[in-house]
Each structure stands twice: as structure tokens, then as C-alpha cells.
Amino acid sequence: MLLNEICNLPDVLEIRGNTAIKIRSLNLDSRKKTSDGLFFCIAGNHYDSHLFAQSAVDNGNVALVVESFLDNVDVAQILVKNTRVVMARISAHFYDYPEQDMQLIGITGTKGKTTTSFMLKAICETAGLKVGLIGTTGNMIGDKRYDSSLTTPDPIDMYSTLALMRNEKVDVVVMEVSAHAIDMHRLEGMLFEVGCYTNFSQDHLDYFKDMDTYFAAKKKFFTDGYVKNAVLNVDDISTERIVGSIHIPHVSFGIGANADVYARDIEVQESGASFKIHLNDVENLPINMKMTGNFNVYNALCAAAAAMVLNISTDCIKRGLESVQSVPGRIELLDTKTAYKVILDYSHSPDSLENILTTVRLITKKNLILLFGCGGDRDHIKRPIMGEIAGKLADISIITSDNPRNENPMQIINAIVEGCKKHTDRYEVIENRRDAIKHALQIAKEGDVIILAGKGHETYQERQGVKYPFNEKIIVKELLAEIEEGR
Fold this sequence. Notes:
The protein is 33% helix and 24% strand. It is α/β, with parallel strands linked by helices. Helix 11 packs parallel to helix 12 and helix 12 packs across helix 13. The relative contact order is 0.08.
């Protein structure tokens, strides 16, 4: 790409320096060695990368995107009002607009994005489409997996991934859309054939500060031209605030309300959930899923409604939903060959913790043992709230570390304990998460269920800026071997 190709892109204010130069890479990290790179200077909440522009030039970048001209850096500079907005537009141009060659389905909401995306992927593949997936557990093209560090990647990684998907002849891309991504303009210029809204509850208040600001980011996905058709959970009270503001076709789904697509005759058992999907009293589609939980009925309805908007047959919807065995780290039953069950789940917000405890209670014959913590450098308000939920709904709580990041782990744990002890004295504090898991496995008896909550699919634990290997599937297997050997 020649630098002068982007002179006329929206939101480019002025360019100084030689624009007849070749750009071969796009970069956000000033420390990264490159050649003929374009570096984006972002003034963020925690750092301002304008301060590292010279380092970026020293490492091979030949031009900068800036929000104010830098007099002491001798390379071409592109002045913009908002670097994040322009980064999305330049990334799209650099990779030759790959998103235009595929149908995009975006899923936003506090919970259910990952599971719904896997369900939609299965439905589309059953219909004979080649599917790309972008989300929390990583990116996929068919059965191939690719690592990703963010739910919704930054625009450079996003368009690089979409370009790869185009090269692989992908028909449909199912993408988790986080509120952070919407607020940070990562989707600027993209148009989704379908946008899905799963639900809204407390999370991410470390970033958004209050619930209204958090909701406004979610709502923006449907009101600011990103979406052609909306699929909305009408049972969630927040949906009213979206419906009243949108001017695009929309389909509602739900259980307890008057929805376009709704479920009846719901039976939730240990082996899965069965129900009938109705479409305006025209369709009556029996579904027997292998995934359990009332919340997964909602996820299935969302996926089914989106598939209907895409004109996928009800036969493919049924076979697709029934083919999903599990989703990584989402109410995932581990193969422990023990008299008790061990479930891995990513629940890390008050609402998701309550959902998993309520669901698993239905399949627990004796004690429900919950092991969980809260992430550091994140929403402090939810810690005692999650402690209260644990105290009310679990028989035994083991409070431990999640990803403490830069915080003192015991400070996080103590905040959780404040909530938990309001309802029970059956809790223990074991800061080391591996030790805590071992203790849970040692105290569990026949008929008990252990929930390892919070980390789910993650394969690391982050402490003081370092990500240490921590895969709970592997750790459980190792600890069970240790316990057996010690007998």
C-alpha cells in the first residue's frame, strides 16, 4: 500500500512528509521490529504511544498516524482526530476490504456470546457453509484454531484474520462483539448482516464506570449503522431501550415474553436440554441439545433466530444445535472418572455465577462445591456480590485467585469473603489456585459436583504482568494422579 492511498479516507485531516512511500505493515507496538511500517499513536487511558513514536521509527516504521503532529520525529505523519477510528479504516484498506466478501454475524451481550457463536457456527456448517469464528476462545476456520488475545481483536489483527478467512474461501464469519470493541471503534466501517443481542448484566465496570455507559456501548452496535438486521432477547428488560431506538428490521426471541421465535415445553436435565422452537406459531421444531441449562436454551434461540434471518432451513437449525457437544470452558464436564463430577466454567460475573450454580444444582445429588475468585485490575464492585451469590447457592465455597494481575491476591479474596460470610460459614480461603483445586478434589465425595469457575478455557494465570501456564484441564488430571499416588 502506498501511503498516499489513504489521504482521502474519512477522518484523515492532514498529512505531512513524503506520501509516495510503500507501507508493508501496520503496527501498534513500538517495540516490534518491522520494515516499512505504519505506526498508530494512541492516547489511551494508561499510556500515550505518541511518547514512543521515535522508538517505533527506530524499529522500522516509516510513517505515523498521530492526533497531534510530532516536531521531533522525522518521518511522514498523518493527522487524525481519533486514531482508533482511522486505524480501523486504514486496516480495512490495507487488507483490501476482506469483510465485503463474507457475511458477518455479530453477537454482543454480557453473557452467552461464545456459546451462541459455536451454535451458529454448527448451524451454518450443517447448511454447507464454510465458517470463520472470531471470539474469546480464539479464532477458527472450520476446525482449524488460531490464537487470539481479545474477544474482538484490534483492527489490524481483525482484518489480517478476515483476509486469511477470505483466502480460505469462508462464506460466513461469526464474531463475538465486545462492548470494549464497540467503544474503541474496532468495528468502524464494518457492516454485519445480522447483529445478535443476548442479554445485559453487570460486568466491566472497571472500564465503563457505570451500567448506563456500559449499556450505551452495547446499544451503539444496533443504532450506529453496524447492523442490517437485529436479533434481540425480548425477555431481557434492557432490550426495550434498544427496540425504541433502532430503525432496522429486527426479530425477537425469548421464553417468557411474546417473541417472534420462542421456546416451549422446556426440559432441562443433566444430559442436556430439550424444547420446541416456535416461529410465530408457524414452525414447531423439537430440539434435543446435549448442552444443559436454561441459559443455553436462550443461546440456542438466539442462534436459531439469526439462522432464520439468513434463510437457513429449520432442518439445518435442528441438526446444527443438536450436534454441539460442548463449548470450551462453558459448563464443560471434565472426564475425571471419579464418583463426583468436575465442571469447568468461565463464569466471572455475578449473573453468570448465579446461572451456573442454579443450573448445576439441578444435577447435584449431594454437595455443590464452588471454587472461584475474581480478576485483579477489574471491577471491584462485583467481588462481594459474587461472594454473596456463592454463600447463598453453594454448599461449600473455596475462595482463591483468578488472574490477580497487578493486585494483591488476598485483597481481592478478602472482598469476596465479605459477601460470602453474610450467608454462610462454609467457605475456605486458599490463595494458591492449584492448591485450592487439589483441596476441592480431596474433599469431594460421591454425588458431589465441583465447579471450577472463572477461568474456563484460559490456559494461563496472570500475576504481576506475567502470564504463567495454567490449564485447569491439565491441572485436574495431574492432581488426580497425585492424589491416587498418595493413597
